[in-house]
Amino acid sequence: MKLYYMPGACSLSPHIVLNEAGLKFDKVKVDGKSKAMDGGGDYRSVNALGYVPLLELDDGTKITEGPAIVQYIADKVPAKNLAPANGTPERIKLQGWLNFVSTELHKTFSPLFNPAMPDEAKKIFRERLAARFAHLDKHLASNQYLLGKDFSVADAYLFVVSNWAPRVDVDLAPYANVLAFRKRVGARPAVEAAMKAEGLIN
């Protein structure tokens, strides 16, 4: 398998999950602006949309979109308990959380990285994020992880997206349970290994 990634981007989520799964994979670093790949070539020849992550399987199959990729990885190693079994109510809850992180957090953070976005518009997105993080904080008051007591692929995604907060002036200080969650997840060896590999921590 081959993971195409940009350091610190949402592709860090499947990177973490691949580490958690203990699966062997190669990494291809992509430059966010030029779309140049380490080793040469234009990433748009791999993914026409030009964004990460993309997981290329050994048979050449390409899987795009982070929530789909992490579920594929989890299902390869059911004994690791990274996702509940397909067809169960718990799996539906997992998919609900993956969608929440994707649509309510990830896509609300995205405009804040755009230097052309007016400050008044950024204020609206920050207020929206504050409401979403307040919701998460309440949930995490009685749950160690999004699904309860067990770490899942949704937690990897939430950890990665919440990493972006300081880069765009989103203050997580009011959300003690979110911060405690981030500390728990950040201490996992698979998370530390992925972040070191991407040059995000020493």
Describe the structure.
The protein has helices spanning about 10-20, 65-75, 90-110, 120-140, 155-160, 175-185, 190-195; strands at about 1-5, 25-30, 55, 60-65. The protein has about 200 residues and is an alpha+beta fold. A 4-stranded mixed sheet has the order 2-1-3-4, covered by helices on one side.
Helix content: 40-55%
**For the terminal residues, how far apart are their CA atoms?**
26 Å
Largest sheet descriptor: 4 strands, mixed
Q: Pairing-aware structural class of the strands and helices? A: alpha+beta
From the 3D structure, determine the CATH topology of the largest domain. Answer: Glutathione S-transferase Yfyf (Class Pi), Chain A, domain 2
Strand order of the largest sheet: 2-1-3-4
| Count of individual helical segments | 7
Percentage of β-strand residues: 5-15%
